[in-house]
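Morning, I've got a small favour to ask if you have a moment. It would help a lot if you went through both lines with me. I owe you a coffee for this, so here goes:
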Amino acid sequence: MTTAPGAILIAAGGTGGHLFPAEALAHALKARGHVVELATDERADRYGHDFPARKVHLIAAATVNGRSPVALAGTALTLGRGTLQALPIVRRLKPAAAIGFGGYPTVPPLVAARLCGVPILLHEQNAVMGLGNRLLARFATAIATGFPNPGGLGAHAGIAVHTGNPVRPPVVAAAAIPYDPPQPGGTLRLLVFGGSQGARVFADLVPPAIAALDPALRARLSIVQQTRDEDLARTRAAYAEIGVAAELAPFFTDLPARMAHAHLVVARSGASTVAELAAIGRPSILVPLPHARDQDQAANAAVIAKAGGAWSFPQAELTPERLAAELTTLLADPARLSAAASAARTVGRPDAVERLADLVEAVAARRPIHSQGH
């Protein structure tokens, strides 16, 4: 059966950081009467079950792992194979526009869209533009940005529009819950999560930090922590040894609600995490992923920390003792936590998804794009 023309093709890598804002956009477009199709990679099995697409197309993709000629040739071959897979899909769909959410898995479907004459919109979530989007920028009609004036735009700043980072409907619902600061002598709710690439460091760091706290403070803690499968047993044992209540799991489907319930969050600083913390308005200790090629997480953390909504620490400097000291200071100061919660909200852009949907419709209609916020 031939698909009717006019669908919006969304291309996103199969991790939560890419799929969650793409999912938010898909919901907004669907509410406006658009048909959405998703091109992604096989990792989407974990995060993409609720994606409101008519169909999900799995496309071969690869990232650059190493700079040797063999590694680069392998990546190029895989991306070429993905483009050949994507071409007949794009020809059949005849989408009105294609939007990519960054990362190498977006390259094959967007190159295929370009070859078929489909207008392209890129969304850059981070405070510094990633390599995948930099490669594709020359083909784009417009570039939507999650942060104002991200690094790496270069000659493409003239087509950049600051929309903000879209957040999913559960985040919007959680954002309606006001911050409830800790009460004297009451339970202290700590949420710890690291995203798909970064939970192990917290399995190493947080339990010994909690062990180093004053026993009276430690007794008040209730901890929810995302922990990789391979780290679950040792992390559970570490908390049991010090007598702290901790709920551990590799993935929480209701993470936005848990953010809203937390007094303090300890997390990585991926773009979606920062966007969700800002939308919901929760104070956080952020530990940027240290080995990222573009140091995008450090740039993201700097934005919300500068606003007063978070405290950012390089991983190399955050020992268990340092984290214990920070937790002791912050959890003893409800007024400071409340002020940080309010400051975090100033970074959020609640209308981001609607602004991005407006831009998608403008690109699809081939209307002129006017740079905003740069």
User: Anything to note?
Assistant: The chain has two domains: 8-165+350-364, 172-347. Residues 172-347 form a domain with the Rossmann fold fold (CATH 3.40.50.2000).
